[in-house]
Amino acid sequence: MTGKSVPGRLGSDGTRLQCHECGEWFVGLATHIRDTHGITAAEYREQWGLPSRTALVGEAQRIQHRAYALQRYALAERAGRADRRGLAGTGPVEPGAALVPFEETAATLWQQRLHAAGWETWQDAISWANANDASLASIARKLGAANSDDVARAAAGSGVHLQTPTQRRLERVAKHLAAHGTLLTVTEELSRWFADIRHRESVSGFAQDVATTLDSLDPRWRLTGEDRRAALREAGLQSRREMWHYNNTHDKIVEAGFRDATALLRWAIENHVGTIEIGDLIGVKSETVLARLHNASRLDPYAATAHLISSRSGHLEDDGERQQCHECGLWFPMLDQHISVHTGVDGTALTTDLYREKHQLSPEVQLRGSAQWRNEMWHKRLEVAGFDSWEAAVAYAARTHIGHYELAELLNVGKRHIWALLSKTQEESGWPATAEFRDSHSGHLADDGTRVQCHECGLWFRSLNRHVTIHRDDTGTKLSADSYRDRHNLPAARKLMAGD
């Protein structure tokens, strides 16, 4: 290390040299001074008083040049064609000893370059290239190496090899073909690659090697425009949107841990679940599940699962919570809402009556509907919370001075939904279950210090100002704070809140 460049001395930091002209640092100066300052190496030495034999490359670069020369000599020596004239400037080399200094020096230099690029090993470099679809030339540029062949040899010496981008794409093509049986359905990166190959062939006028390989896999990769659309229609993939779903859904199914659409459908049938659970599992909307299952399979996915369907002609399988669809074999708590996704023999959507007729079900067989399912769901929640009916639940609320929000927490349901249900079950009948616990009466608003009791429903709230608007008077008009006071003979000055 000699510090900065001054007349008569070339500055070096051990790796780079400092240009006298501009003060910038470079691994080698010859190219820089010629391209930037317009002078030759000889003119530069003369102008700055440097000895004529001063090397305009850094020490590390000279060591690497020696390593390359030793490599060439060692390889030639193995082949019996060693010529020591190629080692000019490298120092004396004994026969048979060339590989040792080359391997030691080259390994050290390459390791330094790997570290400078942010990699610990050659495997890290290869992993980066694979992740970024990069080539050996890309690695060479990050390492500051001029020749990608040198990079390939050095990496191979460490036992790692990099596939070319073409090899990697052909690998993806093979996987796509194995999964879908056609190259008509490739999208995005592979589709652009196919277009590029077709373009290069049309420009060059001769066949590309990779095109010949693709022809052997599926010659339809060459199709474009209407020819391609016709082939898609023939394969049952009539639009670009369906083609996208074909690939996208298959990938989602595989990510969820299933081999294909049939395996997913088999799992769903065996576990008594339907489209909602499948949609949640693979990350799609439940209403698109059946169409996606078809698009993700080259064959009818239902054909391979028909033996798992227990619902038969004249019989509807029911496990107590769900019923099994005759058409797809999936299980639904509200079968009457699902069947319209299937069609009859004339292609029209199935209705409840058409479904019964198609599968010879008697009128006595009930297709579970939303009302029935909701009633069963609420009954289970009431049972878990320790109530045998809604009446028991609201009586408990009136007795313990709580409102419908606290009741919703007990039942583990949303606060917004519970009042609508309470209104249907209690409002019309006047909330008889809370009658014996009502302390609020005409002219008096019960107040326990923290809550006040509603005259209408018997539930308790910190303030009634917003709550009373839920109730209606005898004409069906929503109550206001003032009309509530008038209705129950409360003084106009009485605030509808606790502690007044």
List keywords for this structure.
500 residues; mainly alpha; two-stranded antiparallel ribbon; 22 helices; elongated
What is this structure, in a nutshell?
This protein is an all-alpha fold and 500 residues long.
Folded structure, characterized:
Among the domains are: about 70 residues, no CATH class; about 55 residues, no CATH class; about 120 residues, no CATH class. It is built from 22 helices and 6 strands. Helix 12 packs across helix 15 and helix 20 crosses helix 21. One of its GO terms (biological process) is regulation of DNA-templated transcription. Belongs to the ros/MucR family. This is C2H2-type domain-containing protein.
Write the element-wise H/E pattern from the N-terminal end onward: EEHHHHHHHHHHHHHHHEEHHHHHHEEH
The main pleated sheet reads as: 2 strands, antiparallel
The number of distinct helices, counting runs of at least 4 residues, comes to: 22
What number is the mean pLDDT? Answer: 80
- Low-confidence segments: 82-100
Q: What is the topology?
A:
Blueprint: E1 17-18, E2 25-26, H1 30-37, H2 41-47, H3 59-78, H4 99-116, H5 122-131, H6 136-143, H7 148-157, H8 165-180, H9 188-204, H10 209-217, H11 225-234, H12 240-255, H13 261-270, H14 275-282, H15 289-295, E3 323-324, E4 331-332, H16 335-338, H17 352-358, H18 370-384, H19 390-399, H20 404-411, H21 415-427, E5 452-453, E6 460-461, H22 481-487
Antiparallel strand pairs: 1-2, 3-4, 5-6
